[in-house]
Specification:
7-stranded parallel beta sheet; alpha/beta; 19% strand; 3-stranded antiparallel beta sheet; single chain; 329 residues
């Protein structure tokens, strides 16, 4: 079955599934909308961690062991920075540094982040279209027991140790979706929208906070399918479960479904959570969602698309019920 597929994602987990989708589809039919709430300025450089993870992963140059940064990386810059007494809590590899320098220069010259991503994707021979959620400045801010922290200070410098009280996305109310985002979600040839197994609170919510994006998802004519980032009550990577506990939310697939209620037509969960499927109030597909290697990523991508096709065939019982909810809300 042909048709455009939109993947909504953050960093490592989302990038893995995006890679799988790019390999089981005609890559030119894939649009990846990426979180930029993690973006920040550091050492005079404009850094876009989730965007770069997607670029490196789809470009085949990502470090598979760490999950972030480039393969065959060296760290001479960081070593010299420490010797000079500079801030070294955020690791910038020598190869990775080139991306940040080029992006910083481009943005200072007036190039949009979207346009820079096109350049970088072309240089890395990526056929899928990668879009930032916005070209405007949006920053994830974490309210914690240790005070208000910019996201990277919480996530990297303090290693997610502070207790999270709430999250906000500064600048989101004034932001506009990047060019192509709303068009991708309203494309009449849309086959499916996939919300990747990224952290719902840190990676997906910033995208949904950009005015117009949530509404476009709710009005999408194709099935919207989320892949749960929870496997057996745990997250594969990152602080998803820790944050859920601190916010008083149980780490279950039903909690993920509830978080996306009104947006999704179906939820993909891991085999380990098959027993919870009956507790979820949308159709559920049970499969292996743990992505260890490339075949895992391709298989999950195929399973997600097959599930979306089944939901599309269900017609009125699924998609139109969501659209009816939009009209009556």
């Amino acid at each position: 079955m042909s048709g455009r597929v939109v993947a909504v994602c953050g960093g490592i987990g989302g990038a893995k599934l995006a890679l799988g989708l790019s390999r089981v589809l005609d890559a030119q039919q894939l649009v990846v909308i990426v979180n930029t709430g993690d973006d920040f300025e550091h050492l005079g450089l404009s850094i876009s961690p989730d965007v770069d993870t997607v670029l490196y992963t789809l470009g085949g140059v990502a470090d598979r062991e760490r999950g972030w940064g480039r393969t065959d990386e060296t760290w001479h810059f960081m070593e010299a920075l420490r010797e000079l007494g500079g801030e070294h809590w955020f690791q910038l590899g020598d190869r990775d540094l080139a991306m940040h320098v080029q992006r910083t220069r481009a943005l200072r010259e007036g190039t949009t982040l979207s346009a820079f991503i096109v350049r970088a994707a072309t240089a890395l021979n990526i056929e899928a279209r990668i879009l930032p959620m916005t070209d405007d400045r949006v920053r994830t801010i974490v309210e914690t027991d240790q005070g208000t922290l910019p996201f990277q200070r919480y996530f990297v410098e303090r290693r997610c140790s502070p207790i999270v009280h709430s999250l906000r996305f500064d600048g989101s109310q004034r932001a506009r979706p990047a060019g192509g985002v709303l068009d991708a979600l309203s494309n009449p040839g849309l086959r499916a929208v996939v919300i990747c197994p990224s952290n719902p609170y840190l990676s997906i919510d910033p995208i949904l906070a950009v005015p117009g994006v949530r509404e476009a998802l709710m009005k999408a004519s194709a099935p919207v399918v989320a892949v749960s980032p929870i496997i057996g009550g745990q997250a594969v990577k990152g602080p998803t479960v820790k944050i859920m506990a601190e916010l008083g939310i149980s780490a279950t697939t039903s909690s993920i479904a509830a978080h996306y209620r009104g947006l999704i037509d179906g939820l993909v969960v891991d085999d380990a959570d098959a027993g919870d499927a009956s507790l979820v109030d949308v159709p559920v597909s049970v499969t292996r969602t743990l992505m260890i290697d490339l075949p895992d990523r391709e298989q999950l991508a195929s399973d997600v698309l097959t599930f979306a096709s089944k939901l599309a065939a269900a017609g009125r019982t699924v998609r139109e019920a969501r659209l009816a909810g939009v009209q009556t809300s």
